[in-house]
Amino acid sequence: MTSSKIELPGEVKSDPAALMASLQLMPSPVPDLEIKYTKADTDKAVQAARLAFTLGSVWRRMDASERGRLLDKLADLVERDRTILATLESVNGGKPFLQAFYVDLQGVIKTLRYFAGWADKIHGMTIPVDGDYFTFTKHEPIGVCGQIIPWNFPLLMMAWKIAPALCCGNTVVIKPAEQTPLSSLYMGALIKEAGFPPGVVNILPGYGPTAGAAIAFHMGIDKVAFTGSTEVGKLIQEAAGRSNLKRVTLELGGKSPNIIFADADLDYAVEQAHQGVFFNQGQCCTAGSRVFVEESIYDEFVRKSVERAKRRIVGNPFDPTTEQGPQIDKEQYSKILALIQSGISEGAKLECGGKALGRKGFYIEPTVFSNVKDEMRIAKEEIFGPVQQILKFKTMDEAIERANSTEYGLVAAVFTRDINKAMTVSAAMHAGTVWINCYNALNVQSPFGGFKMSGNGREMGEYGLREYSEVKTITMKIHQKNS
User: Fold this and answer.
1) Candidate list 145, 285, 382, 467, residue with the active-site label
2) How far apart are CA 167 and CA 119, in angstroms?
3) Residue 284 annotated to the active site
4) Catalytic site residue 375?
5) Per residue in 186-231, pLDDT tens?
6) Which strands make up the sheet holding 201-203, listed edge to edge?
């Protein structure tokens, strides 16, 4: 397909709502599919990427402004086929179609356009060194970049990875998650249509222990970027060290604190905390899964949070009223239910939910726990599901100490009308991003990444470009230096 218009019997629909009303799709469990893999697949992809990166190649000789034009063209094609891509995302992973169309695809388009604009604005500087020398720096592409993306935001994470890499002039071997390859493969057709030279982008579907490991260990790959679990991130960093010491950027897990003070706008904070946990079926590395609420408003906050969770509509992702679809697969579904049971057995109060929905598919009720203690598994482990933990605190110092008492450091948030509290807490948080009176306010212009075991390096914004270029210093002897 090369158009976002989908032909149905007797008519053509391009409006998302009209399309949804016509689709009869319900993501549900399917039998495991055997996918053959050999190391030769990765070798072939790396060979193509290295050939495209060879000195004198079409890609290496291309003007930087032309690289930007190609990225802009790709953004145009994504806009054209936005409905198809959003449909594939929903079929891929069960996320609501409207979220895929208005959130994920909007982010993809903005990311491609942002880095398209940067392509011809990456440059070095001249440096006034001592002696009769002329010294300057160049920012050069690293080379072949291996990129491994997760299943929770397949297209958006693909854009986050390939856009800065291509902007800087690298070539790419990218592995989509084995659970969600469909939209990445469709993007491959759009990349080809946009006019990128052969070998610049290579899409390698496969499993983590095979294709992913081959990328991490490959001697022909100069850099690897990974978004996923901390456990796998450690393996990738180890593989990079044991092979060719390739550069590594990691965006990993989180157990993020969301601190609600008594002076906050209560109804607004409840809604923001709700969306901060339950968005995308709770399958977000940024999920604000530890909600710390000041003692004086705790009971009311819990009551309102439970009311909101009970109103959350769970169902077919292609139903326009659906807020929450199924979990990604049986493994994740079972893990979430097991952690819910651990919360009950360890003494947290189950306020609502806590069970699987009795329907075909991996659906879980929106779940809220109160009276949660810091030592409970649900307060320490990344659940990656529709489960909200609400904890009580008395003082700001206590909230800061408990919020930072985790191995993770991806994001944090604070809700208050007091600017002094807001700035004190934001400065004290051990996290790469802190939101004040908002949640999940991610933008392509601002850097994103974690502290501690939430990863290293930054994606997005000008900072993200640094992860995909090498700085070269060139010094030339001259006859006489003059200021």
Assistant:
1) 285
2) 5
3) no
4) no
5) 999 999 999 999 999 999 999 999 999 999 999 999 999 999 999 9
6) 201-203, 171-175, 144-148, 223-227, 247-251, 455-456
